[in-house]
Structures are given as structure tokens and as C-alpha cells.
Amino acid sequence: MSEITRRRFLAASLAGGAATTLASGKKAFGAGTFSGYSDSMGVLVDLTRCIGCRSCEAACNKEQNLPDPALPFDDPAVFDQHSHGREKRRTTEKAYTVVNRYEVEGQDHPLYRKIQCNHCNEPACLTSCFVGAYKKTSEGAVIYNPDVCVGCRNCMVACPFYVPAYSYSSATNPLIKKCVFCYETRLKKGKPPACVDVCPQEALTFGRRKDLLQIADKRIKAHPGKYEDHIYGEHEVGGTSWMYLSSAPFDQVGFDTALQKEPILNNVKDFLATVPMVLAIWPALFTGFHLLAKRDGKHEENHHAEEDSKK
Amino acid sequence: MKKLAAHGVKTVDSPDKAPGRKWTLMEKLFLGLTPGEYLNQFIRNRFNWILGAIFLIGLPLIAYRFFFGLGAVTHSSYDYPWGVFLSFGLFCMVPLSASGFMLGTAVEVFGRHDLEPIERLALLNGLMGYAFAVVYLLVDLGMPWRLSYPMVVSFGPAAVLFLVGWHVATYLSVQVMEVSTAFFEWINWPAAKKFIRRGALGLTVAGIILSTLHQGALGALFTYAPGKVHPLWYSASFQWLHFFVSSIPAGLCMVIVVSSVVKHTMGWRCDGNFMNNLDRITITLARGASMGLITYLVIKFIGVAHDNTWAYLATGWGKWFMFEIGFGVVLPLVIFSVAIHHKRVDFVRIGAFITVFGIVLNRLNTALITFNWKLYQEVPHVFEVLISITLFAIYVAVYRFILNRLPILYAWREAPSEATQEAEEKVPARGGTSGVPVGAYRTMD
Q1: Do B422 and A308 touch (CB under 8 A)?
Q2: Residues A132 and A185 both lie in one domain
Q3: Which residues of chain A have a CB within 8 Å of the CB of B198?
Q4: Residue A89 domain-assigned?
Q5: Do A287 and B141 touch (CB under 8 A)?
Q6: Is residue B429 scored above 50 in pLDDT?
Q7: What domains are defined for chain B?
Q8: How many A-B residue pairs are in contact by the CB < 8 A criterion?
Q9: Of A52, A116, A121, A262, which sits with the fewest C-beta atoms within 10 Å of its C-beta?
Q10: What is the pLDDT of residue A7?
């Protein structure tokens, strides 16, 4: 490379400038923290009320047109099953919600915990998706658009609750499979999701998230000693639409209690913020280095002649 | 080819076969041999047999993956969505390809023209690594035909992967342009080469920007999974710096490794300028790599201190972490310092190989081995491993195909008729087109 003429400097700066413009598109979102739509709906799950009947699983299966499971929904042997590598079952492409049984010391009966998408206020799946396939609706549901999904599965990596599953078996149209809060069929029309509707124990309470928080608070205060003094999902990863009450410590009934309080996106913001800085500073910095490295024009000129003649 | 060169077969290193007679494209593709000779040496080469065996098993498996889905060749794990294809293919290949921007910066920006003999190899190494990272990605994506979606159909601008996608795509084009100068020489199109060379500084600076960001972004991807990556391999604040800084020794050492392999296996193709300068350049690159390694070592422990994860060092994972750092970072540092001091190029090469191993181990640890450390250990499906090996074999084959032909390891001698004014006196001095077996004397030893 020869010395920098003004034209070349301009060209180099232009390249950097173009890159910066490119990046401004990426940074189109504000850096503030989103804590959820104020009127979004949610569900409060009370582990003390759940009897493990799995009618919610059956209802979900029917509502979402999922294939029948290997064991019928009323077979308790399911609780001894486990997913690949795990002790307990997890959500799969064929089961958007599963109920697991936990025998906890000091409890007079086994506790059952329902797993499904928790519909985070600031979902990690949504923020990690590079085609924007996810959407958090104002009703609170985190929904997924299969038409733009490329299949990178970053959302599965990002989800702190290990919820999204993937239809790996499909060669032509593999998709993310997860609970969508029955958005199209029910939530949009103001109706509770199928699982809540069917629950015979009122273990699941559907309502506005802020009302649910008050209900949960009341239950904890009304029965001192019965509940753990914590609403799981109130603050975890920025808050979730689905929240839990439990009589046993949460880590003993399959919850990850080490989760951060801030949305997952906050971990990434620092890096994203450096992006426009690098784009803006590097071109001038390195072109400057180039000018410094070039001791005098003569040296470069001579060298350049040599270089060309070699080729 | 080595033997043929020794027996006086003329290699293609200039536009002219004999005075007034140009090489045809077919002749260039066959390295100046007749098709029969070419086939002969192709079959004689034992390495081709190994590649052939790998392809025989691997290519059907790749077809199998596309006909029957990822579920057929992986464990289709919901807990480990990213298996070997991405852990190795993307997260390891990309740092090992940082060589392009490192050497580009050294030569074009800092004016270190003493490193020029290896610049093109470093650029090609970068291009090859990125191109094959994309190949691995295509095999891993659920719907690879939608690869362009984040560019044209639907945008997820807040996602780190969006940035990675855009930058890898842009940088890939930048690298294609950087390497294209060699291609333009080879097909005799000096005007195009001249055009690209004009923009070399711009391309190089663009390369630095894009590399800084996406090398870092690959690290930042893991900050989406704070509970899943083991705390010793995780640092919310510094993850991207860990990945970026470690890519510097990784890229430099990869060039040392590749150049050593090339020197021993493709000596006939390297010209005197490359061969005579290689040892000196290797030492220089090792100096740079040492600086990168020591910085990486320091910021690794700053990361541990910042998050106060010292306690984990006493656990089993901690021992594994110490092994990775001890064997993959400290050991090569020691080797480098001894080797550089005593000018022992052979030791430098061993050190470089260990560094490459160390960085690969780090990426595999972050993405696969310690991932989900609270859950369970995933052992990859055998087909997944076989496909990864096959893709790597294709990478080696394509890499070699290009090195054999394009003027990467040797300088292209312009014909007097086409040469620019500066080049005129140089051509006769190099033996011109007299039919002397140019490659021969280099491989006799």
C-alpha cells in the first residue's frame, strides 16, 4: 500500500462511514429497560393446590393439535419418566407443558410443578433472535413467527428456563415449538389459556399480572408458614407473566433460584453499546496509525516499487 | 508434484508457458501437467487416499442430514441446541481465521513490509476459515436456505447474532476482495488487481473493524446464557474481550501452523522469497502471539476476579479450567519465550500448535463441554462428529487446491509484455521463461 493521498483517506473514511450507517440500523432500539406492558395478562401457579392430574397437559395437547403421548395422560408412571439426560421431563416439540412430581422432605404430600413458557416481560428468546421471529404482545404472550425462522436455535440457548423445543426430525420445515399462551385461539379474545380453563383445582389463576401479584401477596400473608415468602417470576430475569407460589423452597421443586433479576438483554447491552464506538473510532485510529508508521513518504514509495516489481 | 518438480517439470508461476505461448486455463488448473500426469500424481498422493476415505463415509452422511433432518445425525437435544457443528465449526474456525486481519493490519496499516511474504497466506487462511464457518453453519441451520433472511427479509437488530451475521457476511466479501488480487494475477487481469490494490487500506481498516466486532460478538453471544455457561468461562463484562483478544494469538498461530505444514508438504509450490523468510517471519509472528497470549492470560484472571469466581477453581471444573489455561496459554507462552530467545523455529512451531489447541479447547469448553454444567454432559452423536470431520477435510482439500494454483506461496512473474514499467528489469533477473524448472531446486533437499 502506498502513501495516503487525500482521496484515499476519504475512501477509507467513507468505508468506515458506510459501516457506521449500517450499524445505526442495528442500534435502532433504545437502551432503556423494558419492564413489561402494564395491562399484560399472566397466570399464577400455586404448587400447594396442584394434585398432578395432568388435565392441563391434555388440554394443551388438544388445543395445540399435538400428537398423542406414548403414555395416556392419566398414567402416573409418567412422573418417573425423564427427558434425554435429565432427571425430570421437560417441554418438547410434542408437549408444550409438562407437570413434574417432587417429593420434598417436610411436605405431607408430593408437590407438582407445571412447566411451560413463562412469557417473560423482556424475553431472552426475543432479544436473541436475529430475524425478529418473536413478539411480546401487549396481552403478555410471547409468540413466534415460523415464516421467518432460520433455525439457528439461539433462542433455545438464550432461554433461562429451557423452554423452547425444536422439531429436529423435520428436514424441510423444522420449527421452534413452545407454549404461546393460546394467543391466537384464546388470549387475543380475552379468554384464559386452555390449561387454566381446565384446571379442576384452581391451581392456575388467570388475570392481569399486577392483580396476580396482589393475589399472591395476600395468599402468602393469609397463611403464615404455608408458603415460601417469594413469588417466583415477580423479578426473575426482569419478571415473567407466569408466576409461582410454593410451599417448599423453590430450588427443591425444580426452579433455578440463581437467575439474575435483570432481563438477560442487560448482559448484552454493554457489548452492543461498544459497537457504534468501534465503528466510529477504529477507522480514524487505524488510518492514523498508518500515517504514523509511515516514517517518510520516500521509504514507502521505494518499497512500493519493489513490491510491484516482484509481482 | 514434489517429485515431478524435481524431475524438471515446469510449474505454472507466470502467464507464459514458453516465450510467446501462454498457459491455457486448463493447463493452469492441471498445474502445468498433462491430464495423465496430473491424474498419476493425484493417485500417487497418499493424502488423497485419506481424504477419499473420509469423503466416502462423510458425504453420504451430509446428504443424509439434508434428507432426514438434523434429528437424524444429532441427538436433537433441546438442552444443547448448539452441537459440534457450531461449537467447532463456528466458534473455533472464526478465531483461527483472525490471521487475515492481523497480517493485513501489520503490512498495510503499520507498514511492516518484512511480513509481506506471508501476508497472502494469512489472508487466504482468514478467507478459508470464514467460508467454512459458514459451511458449518449451513449444515447446522434448521433451514439453511433462509440464510439471507436476517439481511433481506426480517431484522432482529437488537440481537448479537444479527451483528455476527452481518459482519461475517461483510467481512467475507472484504476477504474475497483481498484475496482476489492473487486470483486476478493468476487469470492475467492486471487492471482488476490494480483496482483492488487501490482500495487495500480501506479494505484492511474495514477488516479490523469487522473483526474486532464479530470476534467479540461470538463471545457476547454467550452472555445470553449466563446460567448455562460455567462461571469460569463466563464473564458478562469481558466475554467479548476474552474472545477478541484470544483470537489474536489464535489467528497468528494458525498461520504458523499452516505455513509449517505447507513448507513440509508443498515445498515445490513455495518460492525462495517465502522459504527464505519463513523462519524469520515465524519468530516475528510468535512475538505477536506471545503479546496476545499474555494479555489474554491477564484479562482471563481479571474476569475471574471481577465476578469473584475464585471459589470455583477448587472444584473439578476449576481443575479443567486450570488445565486449559496452563496447557493452552501458559505452556505456549513459556515455549515461545524460550524459542524466541534462542531463535528455535521448531519450538515456535510446537508452541503455535499448542496455542491453536488451547484456543480450540477454550471455545469447545465454552460452547459445549462446560455448557449446561448444572444439567448434564452431552456426548455428541457419532454422525455429528463424522460430518464435522468431513467438512474439515473438505476445508483442507479446498485450501490445498487454491494453494497449489494461485500465487499465494509464490510470486507471480509478469510477462515482459504485460508488466508495468517498474517490473521490467526484474523479470529477466528471475530466469524469465527459459524453461528452467523453477520449483526444482527448492525441493531437492
Answers
A1: yes
A2: yes
A3: 8
A4: yes
A5: no
A6: no
A7: 79-376 (1.20.1630.10)
A8: 251
A9: A262
A10: 54
Domain assignment present for residue A1? The answer is: no
Residues B113-158 pLDDT 10s:
899 899 999 999 999 999 999 999 999 999 999 988 888 888 888 8
- Residue A134 is inside which H or E element, if any? strand A134-136
Summarised one tens digit per residue, pLDDT across range B73-82 is 998 789 999 9
Query: A246, A262, A278 — which closes off a domain?
Result: A262
Interface-testing mutation among B84, B115, B143, B235, with chain A (most A C-beta atoms within 10 A): B143
- The answer to whether the Cβ–Cβ distance between B157 and A293 falls below 8 Å is no
Residues 6+ apart with CB under 8 A from B44: none
Kindly list the distances between the CA atom of residue A217 and the CA atoms of A44, A209, A210, B16, B35, in Å, as whole numbers in the listed order.
11, 12, 11, 87, 83
Are B192 and B147 in contact by the 8 Å Cβ rule? The answer is: no
CATH code: domain of residue A255: 3.30.70.20
Q: Are A92 and A237 part of one and the same domain?
A: yes
In a domain, A36, yes or no: no
- Both A129 and A220 in one domain: the answer is yes
Which of B423 and B18 is assigned the larger pLDDT?
A: B18
CB contact under 8 A, A29 and B157: yes
Lateral strand order in the sheet of A41-46? A204-208, A41-46, A242-245
**Claim to verify: residue A140 and residue A188 sit in the same structural domain:** yes
Tell me if B224 and A85 make a contact (CB, 8 A cut-off): no
**Chain B residues in contact with A165 (beta carbon < 8 A):** 78
Q: Is residue A281 part of a domain?
A: yes
pLDDT for A245-289, tens place per residue?
Answer: 999 999 999 999 999 999 999 889 888 888 989 999 999 998 888
pLDDT tens-digit profile of B313-369?
999 999 999 999 999 999 999 999 999 999 999 999 999 999 999 999 999 999 999
Would the pLDDT of A299 be above 60? no
Q: Cβ B142–A271 below 8 Å, yes or no?
A: no
| Pairwise CB contact (< 8 Å): A282 & B69 | no
Min Cα separation A206/chain B (Å): 28
CB contact set of A38 (below 8 Å; sequence gap of 6+): A210
Residue B36: exposure state from Cβ atoms within 10 A (0-12, 13-18, ≥19):
exposed
Question: Which residues make Cβ contacts (< 8 Å) with residue A109, sequence separation at least 6?
Answer: none
User: What pLDDT score was predicted for residue A107?
Assistant: 86
Segments in B326-377 forming alpha helices (H): 331-342, 345-364
pLDDT (tens digit per residue) in B230-253 = 999 999 889 999 999 999 999 999
> Which residues on chain B are in Cβ contact (under 8 Å) with A298?
none
Q: Are residues A234 and A215 in the same domain?
A: yes
Residues A291 and A209 in one domain: no
On whether both A241 and A303 belong to a single domain, the answer is no
C-alpha span between A220 and A228 (Å, rounded): 8
Looking at the fold, whether A146 and A17 belong to one and the same domain comes out as no
Domain of A152, in residue numbers? 41-262
* Of the partner residues B71, B199, B220, the one whose CB lies closest to the CB of residue A168: B71
Chain B CB within 8 Å of residue A265 CB: yes
